[in-house]
Amino acid sequence: MIETKFQWIDALTTLCPLIGRLNLKAGKDIVYAERVHGILVSHNTDAYNLSNSDAHNQLVARAVEALSGKVDDSGLRHMLGELTSRTKTYGSFCELAAYDRLTRAGLTPTPQITMTAAEVLNSNGSVLDGNLMLGNKIVFFDIKAFGFHAHKIKILNDRLNAEFPGKSVLVEGAWDVSIELLQDLLEHSGFTQLVADLKGGNVVTRGPLSIRTQDRRPVTVSIHEANPKELAQQNRTYPLRFAGQYTRGGPFLLLFVIHPWFSQGELHQNFGGFVDTFARELARLVFLGFRHDATPLEGMPTSDAVKLLSAIAFLNVWPEEMGKEKRPSCRVYLNPIAVHTLERSDFASIEAVLGDDILIERIQ
Asked: Are 25 and 81 in contact (CB under 8 A)?
């Protein structure tokens, strides 16, 4: 059983010996989980779960092998340092998993591309996660972990339970909430006020969320609702957060990574077509919902900035070794008003490899 950073590094080194040369065990060890009075107490659930999964460790090893020679040792050290860190496991794993999936789809991404202010919207320039060839086009991309609402609600729930020993804290109501609301609740002032309100009464509301405490019971039933179109509506500005990385001179693909341990059921299982509806609606709202928006965004009207987002992809990185998920595992939505357009034909080589495991659709 892996319970510490150093143990995880040893396990990864066994699968990929080049990891051993990166000196990742410099400094203090980090404990992911420990036994307290016979009960397992987790300090980093993401790292604990990933490190104890052979399939996920193999995925990380494959990604490192694929990146070797393309990323220098300092770059690999940074990625794996974040993966095995106390707080950045989630984002780093998603990045490595995306590189692995792109490589296994027959692509040869060039990682870590430094861009100047003349090449991206960010006035200070940016380091993009990479570029790749699609058809005869060089497409720049950036990878973002995408389990936002359910994952952050779980973090909030865990923190609240720690504040109320002997009780259970339930986060119910409608989970169709914006990322901004959840971040406000997780920040110091918002969290402190929420705890104070819960101590003053058993039920507290924040937007559509209903948060309550109850005495711990052998079995607890908690109910929440989720509507895919409402969730998309509440988070329609989320892809615009990364506008600074949109490229001025060529196609740009924003790649959102989905994994069930982070994004929970709704964005993984596609029950009732939830993922299909949500992903398509979010892409539609982003591409077409800001056509007349003159609000400044990275030095230009939002209506112009969204035209530099050529496509949004949603990539489920659940390891195939752990069981095949309902297809497709990759959904790509093309921007019909993009300045630098991508066509379905540009993805022909990927479709040849993935078949019905990839969906490509131009938003109308």
From this structure: no
List % helix, strand, coil for the chain (3-state, nearest 5).
Answer: 45, 25, 30
CA 69 from centre of chain: 26
Give dist(CA 50, CA 52) in Å, integer. 5
**What span, in angstroms and rounded, lies between the C-alpha atoms of 321 and 323?**
6
> Residue length, the chain?
364
Q: Is residue 75 part of a domain?
A: yes
Tens digit of pLDDT for each residue in 80-115?
Answer: 999 999 889 989 999 999 999 999 999 999 999 999
Are 127 and 206 members of one domain? Answer: no
- Structural domain span for residue 162: 149-225
Cα 159 to Cα 162: distance, rounded to the nearest angstrom? 5
H/E element, 185: helix 179-186
Task: Assess contact for 196 and 164: CB atoms under 8 A.
Answer: no
Q: Which helix (H) or strand (E) is 228 found in, with range?
A: helix 228-234
**Residue 143 phi, psi dihedral angles, 5° rounding:** -105, 130
Distance CA 323, CA 203 (A): 40
Strand partners of residue 364 = none
Same domain, 277 and 293: yes
Are the C-beta atoms of 302 and 294 separated by less than 8 Å? Answer: yes
Alpha-carbon distance of 338 to 319, in angstroms, equals 33
Domain boundary among 225, 249, 274: 225
Q: What pLDDT digit, counting tens, does each position of 111-131 carry?
A: 999 999 999 999 999 999 999
